[in-house]
Amino acid sequence: MVIAAEPAALDAVERTTLPSHSAASLTRRSLLRSGAGALAAVAGAGALRPARAAPASVPFGAAIQFEMFDIDAAYRHAFRDECAIVLPMNELKFGLLRPSREQFLFEPADRLVDWALSNGQRSRGHTFVWWSTNPDWLEAITDEAEAERVLVDHIERTADHFRGRLESWDVVNEVMAHEPGGRDGPLRDSFWLQRLGPRHIPLAFGTAARADPSARLVINDYDLEFAGDRYDRRRALTLDLVRQLQDAGHRVDAVGIQGHLYSHLKIDREALARFGRDLKVLGVGLLATELDVIDFQVPGGPDEIDEAARVVVSDFLDGLFAGQRPEAVIAWGLTDRYSWVPDAMPRADGSPSRPLPLDRDYRPKPWFADVRQRLTQG
Ligand code: XIL
């Protein structure tokens, strides 16, 4: 599959205006050309670090929902106390931000982001391009040029509005087919794919890079951590997408592994570690963006459910850290009280799902302590 690039003239502009944190992806090409250069770069990087500095913690974060933030003080306090990163879960999705073509409903996300920043926390953006949660007025557009204008305008205005407040953006979310290489093509059949073809991906990255040169640009997807052919294909295709974007001159700063962990499946720690190493060679970082545990196939009571969660989370972190140091580990919510998991995949026995680090009464699960400890080790 080839994702066509934007015009070379635009790529050239981007290359000259890349912010400093993209140096890694730029130097990759020069490093590959010269082994000596690579050694010098490694030595130089080491020299910048103070001797025997304690490794900094990998930040923990969580996605927050405006409706609950607004009414539930215990919910707010949990995010304030537990997180280094707090991001709007739904408020920046196309359909919520743009109920009509003229509207940009920035207020809920503004309030969440400003609240996080006022607590000394950081925030990030989710997401510009997704197959889901698109408004009817958008999906009614049939003309390719118009769809392109809307996408570019959407990214420009939204990224510009939050410039300096969001450290990174999930530029595209779930653009891979659920089963690439099976019956599906490599990319997910979405509004954007139908109207613009695969080039919607580089178009989104190029536009985001120009609109907020200081934000890190992330490609975000799911099912990248388990053992099996389908997951191998999804890891390989993600690497392929990253390489194609880079070869077309685009900046990709990190891959977001959503980390919706099915606790009845096996994590492929070696494959996940290899994936992280392969990305590192490409100068691309890695983070977990939507960690939670999907326990609908695990029989038993809370203790059995939490033990299965502990194993899957621990194996996931093993694989993640073995590849490269993750930029962050972010949960998709914080308390079992509010989660998409029981809506999408309820437990057959009717008992409550236990997907998140805190239970319904805001008590931490044992596995949350393990996560904390792992992140503190850096
Ligand atoms: C989910 C939210 O958690 C729900 O509140 C919402 O109703 C639907 O979307 N992958 C993603 C997220 O990238 O945006 C989804 O979030 C969960 C799956």
How are the SSEs ordered, and which strands pair?
Elements: H1 8-17, H2 23-33, H3 35-48, E1 60-64, H4 66-71, H5 73-82, E2 85-88, H6 94-97, H7 107-118, E3 125-129, H8 136-139, H9 144-162, E4 168-173, H10 191-196, H11 200-211, E5 216-221, H12 229-247, E6 254-257, E7 260-262, H13 269-281, E8 285-294, H14 302-323, E9 329-331, H15 341-344, H16 366-377
Parallel strand pairs: 1-2, 1-9, 3-4, 4-5, 5-6, 6-8, 7-8, 8-9
Helix pairs in contact: 2-3, 9-11, 12-13, 13-14, 14-16
This protein binds (3S,4R)-3-hydroxy-2-oxopiperidin-4-yl beta-D-xylopyranoside.
The site of (3S,4R)-3-hydroxy-2-oxopiperidin-4-yl beta-D-xylopyranoside has 7 residues, from loops.
Describe what you observe in this structure.
This protein has 378 residues and is α/β, with parallel strands linked by helices. The protein contains 16 helices and 9 strands. The chain has one domain (7-40, 62-291, 303-331): Glycosidases (TIM Barrel, Alpha-Beta Barrel). The chain has helices at residues 8-17, 23-33, 35-48, 66-71, 73-82, 94-97, 107-118, 136-139, 144-162, 191-196, 200-211, 229-247, 269-281, 302-323, 341-344, 366-377, and strands at residues 60-64, 85-88, 125-129, 168-173, 216-221, 254-257, 260-262, 285-294, 329-331. Strands 1, 2, 3, 4, 5, 6, 7, 8 and 9 form a 9-stranded parallel beta sheet that branches. The radius of gyration is 20 Å and the shape is globular. (3S,4R)-3-hydroxy-2-oxopiperidin-4-yl beta-D-xylopyranoside is lined by residues 89-90, 173, 258, 290, 332, 340.
